[in-house]
Amino acid sequence: MTLSFGVKAQDKYEYASVIFEMINAQKGYIYISDGEKYETRMLEIKGGEMGTNLNPVLTELNKMSESGWEVINTNWYLDRKVFYHLRKRKG
Question: Across 1-91, where does the E strand assignment appear?
Fold first, then answer.
């Protein structure tokens, strides 16, 4: 007789971070680290302000989502940086 309790091995994940840094009302930076590459880009906001118009970082997060990444946590640092922590299943 065999008993199965549905216990599975723990899923394995890759992790990444996206940091959105606001320099002033119209200028900021986005930093992306995914374990393989590191990328920095300057952002300029044409409408609204950097602190309220998050479209540039949301566009990047949506692109990453299409590649299997999911945001698992966010946090703010000193009202100038937003950290997005992401993961995706390995394999």
Answer: 13-22, 27-33, 38-44, 70-77, 81-89
